[in-house]
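Let us begin with a simple case.
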Amino acid sequence: METGNVRFPNGKVVPPIGQGSWHLGQGRRPADVEAAAMRTGIDLGLTLIDTAEMYGEGRSERHVGHAIAGRREEVFLVSKVLPSNATRHGIPKACDASLTRLGVDRLDLYLLHWPDGRTDLAEVVDAFEALRGAGKIRAWGVSNFDVDDMEALFALPDGRNCATNQVLYNLGSRGIEFALLPWCAARGVPVMAYTPLGGSRLLRDATLARIAAQHGCPVSAVALAWAARSGGVIAIPEAGNPAHVAENARALTLELTADDLLSIDAAFPPPHRKAPLDII
């Protein structure tokens, strides 16, 4: 089973492995190292890049803008608006601020970062559709939405134009497989998986290490290929270290076997009940 490209509802095709930026541009590593990592990912085919206005209070967006300078047309660029800015008038202002920090004139995908129970989804959809009509975004979606949230969204005029739902998903957090992932798959809505490596524990797991050794690849590639195995999931591991990004890119060509998947299910059983969503 080789990971294949993922198609958004508007027909745009992206690789199943992208690059995240949650902690980037915030001094954890030298800025030139993090920029080199992101450019390495672009070179290796990890052309979807995800960021948000919340990450480092805009510093991650500035980092991404620096890293992709001169290469805008090579990347599929995603950012997110905070629910506190998610009003009819707040969304256009937040989008303009993100575009300025990124140094670009449009986003390929713009997401509502999470539902806070107070956000008027009808206003959000109207504002997103207006941005799309103005050419500032090419598509819009949501993040951290559960099935009930998605059904409320799809009940709105133009709500079915939602292009994706970005949620936590990895071998240690398989809860979305119970209800949310099938719901999205049935409606042709790809899922973007943040924290797809689940921290260092997964990278030390004996089952994943054995499978990686059999394929001659890094453990991270096994975990990422697993996350993207369905063809409807885009995994976005953080891209701060060039060597790690190169390891992640191995997932693009890794073919997990049926026996591999059975072994992984035995070590990380799929959910038997609905689990609450975490928010990042």
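The second case is a distinct protein. As before, the sequence precedes its structure tokens.
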Amino acid sequence: MDNVYNYLLNEANINYGDSVVLGVSGGPDSMALLHMMLRIKKALDIQIICGHVNHNSGREGQDADEKLVKDFCNKNNIVFESMVIKEYGDDNFHNEARSIRYNYFHSLIKKYHAKILFTAHHGDDLVETILMRLVRGSTLRGYSGFSKEIICDDYKIIRPFIKLTKKEIIEYNKQNKIKYAIDSSNSKDVYTRNRFRKYIVPHLKEEEKNVHLKFLKFSETLLEYNNYIDKQVQKVMKKVCPDNVINIELFIKEEKVIQMKIIYFLLEYIYQDDLMLITDHHAKLIYDLIYSSKANSFIYLPNNVKFIKNYNNLLFEIGEIDKQDYEIEIISYLNLPNGKNIEVIDKSKDTSNNTTYLLSSDIVLPLRVRNRQIGDKMVVKGMLGKKKISDIFIDSKIPMQDRNLWPIVVDSENKVVWVPGLKKSKFDKQNTNSYDIILKYY
């Protein structure tokens, strides 16, 4: 912790009298950071603005977390600011919460004319993030996890704990008798990060106790290479992709590593803070669209992003999706044209038509979701023979204007395996049966 203190005092470019913003949840990491910054406050007479976000997620104790942070700030003459997330949209919960959280911190930066935003992400967080993205697929920058310092428009984001482990932070709290809150959701295996934290990272630490520093070096190396390639791509982008429209004829003349970097560059430009929604599969969909024999075609990506191939050009649109035909490969998470979502999940006890349980050996992967086609039929679970999808719509009293965009899940042989929210097919398994794919519609 002495190294962190020295870094903050001598290298973080904090000057006497500066204003800084801290993101503080009330957990052990952020409370340790708040305590550490209090020491810097006494040394440099800085103004600390503590930003707390109540996620309003239904978890017990969130109001108590806020009170804990507020009481600490009041006791130590620290400015306390807070907000409650009143409602969420249909986006992925964690990504949406993160976006709201950082937008709020950005507003505090502006309000107090601060120059730095500090967050308490530590070395174990970095290991978990990199592992999750390696398994899920990401961009080269995405695989690097997160950086110690990020330069934004008029301020920096600094994560001074990046070389520390959770264990070291907890020990610091014990030594300094710092009270903190425990998020009960951190122990639930339903969250991917929790499973990496509980079952995978400990094994890596058995092999190398300072594995977090190895991952930090890996992260920094990836960023160095990514920054170099970015410089080369920027030169190519001016002619191959002016105004974010790819000239396909020029694109296909480039080396594949440059081609893919152009695609990733566009995805990073489009998704920015929501980059976790994107995997390497999405990049491949765009690549395949470019090389498709069809002169005019398109694909949909999460958050109502549409990539369109128009003869020699590839462009994208963001926003409302019209009532054209669509077909999207199901990878992990999809924001659908009707405003709903389909997500591949790990566990569920839901037996409604909003969740289906499939066995991959029964169908032909990959699965796709599309709108209805003339003649679509499905063997409904518990029934003999096939039933027309149009009849399912009629039986379910689905309005005419909603039917064209209603999602139909099919396998690669175009067999209908699920009409989300309405009917399951013969391929659906009971909860107690063998299955290896769970799809949730919401």
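Residues 2-211 form a domain with the Rossmann fold fold (CATH 3.40.50.620). The chain has 14 helices and 21 strands.
Keep these points in mind for the review questions at the end of the chapter.
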